[in-house]
What we know:
The complex is a heterodimer. Chain A is α/β, with parallel strands linked by helices. Chain A has helices spanning about 10-20, 45-55, 80-85, 90, 105-120, 130-145, 160-170, 190-195, 220-225, 245-250, 310-315, 325-365, 390-400, 430-440; strands spanning about 65, 125, 150-155, 175-180, 200-205, 230-235, 255, 275, 290-295, 300-305, 370, 380-385, 400-405, 405, 420. The radius of gyration of chain A is 25 Å and the shape is globular. By secondary structure, chain B is an alpha/beta fold. Chain B has two domains: about 80-340, Type I PLP-dependent aspartate aminotransferase-like (Major domain) (Aspartate Aminotransferase, domain 2); about 350-460, Aspartate Aminotransferase, domain 1 (Alpha-Beta Complex), CATH 3.90.1150.10. In chain B, helix 4 packs parallel to helix 10. The relative contact order of chain B is 0.13. At the A-B interface, helix 1, helix 2, helix 3, helix 4 and helix 5 of A face helix 1, helix 2, helix 3, helix 4 and helix 5 of B.
Amino acid sequence: MPFISNTPEQQEQMLDEIGLTMDGLFGDIPGQLMAEAFDLSRGLSEQETRNRLTELAQKNATHLTCFLGGGFYDHFIPAAVQSIVSRSEFYTAYTPYQPELSQGVLQAIYEYQSMICRLTKMEVSNASLYDGGTALYEAMMMALRITGRNKVIVDDSVNPIYRVMIQSYTQNLKIELEQTRCKDGLANRDHILQLIDDKTAAVIVQNPNFFGCIDDFSDIAEAAHEKGSLMIVSSYPISLGILKTPAAMGADIVTGEGQSLGIPMSFGGPYLGFMASRKQYVRKMPGRIAGETVDAFGEKAYVLTLQAREQHIRRDKATSNICSNEALCALTALVYLSLLGKEGFRETAQLCADKANYAYKRLTAIRGVEPHFRRKWFFNEFVLDLPCEAADVIAKLIEKRFAAGFPLGRYYDGMENSILISVTEKRTKQEIGMLAEALESVL
Amino acid sequence: MKLIFDKSVPGRRGVRTEPADVPRISISPDLLRQEPANLPQLSELDVVRHFTELSRRNFGVDNNFYPLGSCTMKYNPKVAEHIASYPGFADLHPLLPQLRMGGMLTQGALRVIHEIDTLLREITGMAGFTMQPLAGSHGELTGMMIMAAYHREQGNKKTTVLIPDSAHGTNPASAAIAGYRVVSVPSNENGVMDVEAVKQHLNDEVAGLVLTCPNTLGLFNPHVKDICDLIHSVDGLAYYDGANLNAIVGKARPGDFGFDIVHLNLHKTFATPHGGGGPGAGPVGVCRKLVPLLPVSVVIKRNDGTYALEYDRPKSIGYIAPFYGNFGIVLRAYAYILMLGKEGLRRVAENAVLNANYVKEKLKGHYELAFDRLCKHECVFSTTQRMAENGIRALDIAKALIDKGFHPPTVYFPTIVKEAMMIEPTETESKETLDSFVDAMIQIAAQAESEPEKLKQAPATATVCRPNETAAAKNLNIASL
């Protein structure tokens, strides 16, 4: 039997030693509750399994040149990343409850937390959350706890997938959710400023926003702080290689999707939710946190800390219900950032912006293709208006081996002809040129 | 060991970035950061050495026996890792199926989700599943949201959820976050939830109950069906925390016990790696009447044999994850279930329960057994009276095990057992391994009598010894800025 070490003889021997039978081991389950039969196939050999899964993998499109983003990006991943995180001392371990046997993971979490702080310039970070969307929801809940208020303002330039997630999570809770409609590609400050009052727990914004536009939320932070509200910024970590940090804008809590930091797209997960905040709020933070301390001999050591916030101690009074987080994905991000280093990280971000800008120029030179937002700075994504329905054009470009972008009409009324195009450092000048030619040919 | 930041050498590089084949753009300076993020500057070899050294200071299932109770630290088959790295899965953009006809670009992935859904229904006796929850506790929250949506739909005004005092901390935390008040129900003298106690707490306010079965003491509640029936009598829903499914998988099904909502931990029962604390996956299964409430999207099989994502589900609780769950983890579990098959699945529970009872019987007499009866996948011991007199605590036993080369069991949980040591061997461990663990435990028990002071100083062989947790919280240092 695969993955079971004991032979039938050993099983018999063990049963004899403890004076039981195999059926007797389940004697405490009432007979009528035992299942009669399971309608499953016979077990497959490793080769059969691999053949079957290879066949299924080949039914997925891997031949497309990817200009699809929307918060999830096709960045280059150095081979050393996978090589390091494949070390089974890391990936077959559990949560580091026994620090003596977990210094590797604990120090890695501490270093990861440090990396996130250095990227965002915030003071504290947790050990990770599930993904960018649940991280944003957790940040909102954290703001409610900190302020004791129940109103939240979210601009619709925040990733629409995250906004619908927040709506689902708050259905059974007494939370007043106000949505503002972005203006000219940026967060609608007029409306946001008008809505902020002394019941407002937080304003939620995103940079670069879902349309790729770069914003500076300093004015929003100031207005929020004046009323005792917090500002939560959802952030694209690669962009922090060059863009103004959320801390410099006055953010109180920063979250984001860490997939772009060396994690494969894997059809939606596992990903990495990161969260950082001001130090004064650390005790209201959800999730695990690793901290430095000393051991019995005064040597430097790492442990999970501030556990009194967590579900295994506080039960229904915990700051969150989260238990497992995404430790291996956090390790992946840490290794990726360590390999890129100070210069490589900055260059990668700059290359994304350069190539996106080049693509923007090439594509807007096509007759009938217009920029949706004029005179706006964008990072590595931008919106173009096509002379016809974007979903249709994208479908035609798939036949030409391009995942050309995302049709914004899916989430935004009136944007049926708009396409969101993403360009990472991985795309070459040649690929961008070929996309331009292909687009021109289908219009 | 030095932090990676302290190994940085100015000018050193780990990767060569892509050549700049397009003109450089200058974004308006007021939108840029003042200085580059202060990341370390290291060669690829520096980075590899650093993390290899860190990995040597860590312990996983591949190192040795890891009997961490309630965590099901079974062996993680290598082939599952191999499969998850296939480019057809690893490089697949999650937004592809949202493009027009895009579902046809991801037929293989959609089929994996659809097929594991079918397999898990059969294994649990539920009517439908969602693969979206990203961890066990996320599954609990999803289940609680489904419970709330059901009562909203029924027009019920329900406010409380019953949870046994032996429950995992995530149970009450998830119920509270979903907006419910938690009522803790005490365990009886047999270590399980008492039918009479449930009756006492039962009223129209009760939205549902959360039960782990077998529970965190490793004990199966023979009255589980009666308890579910009682909850149904007030139109409440019975929730099965699948953390301990490994004890009954292939033998009995929570759906047959009367549970309405079930979450599974793929990283426990279905052998996906724990990753040092995630990523996991916590699919949720529901009974027929709750299927319309499952999160969007759902993978359906069309009449022509192709697979598609269904978004138009008016009664759904909505989106709880950005896409289709932790697909890479779901994929590993799918491969594992295919390899086990019908016969293998049954053998999992049989050997998990055999191994736990074997360890229980062998250690009985050396340690205090919390409940001396047949257990399922795990057993819970306490320190003996003599150990307590010598000042020996469960923590000391745990630390002494480290010096013997084993990962300690879960200690101080469940909280209803004093000085608890919760041992879950899992089915993948051999008799030889269990015997050597039992020997080590017996030696430690003897040492607790002969040289208790030495035990209190264990471990002697680890890289660190008993880090000061109080100091960590007091002098908070959680990042090198």
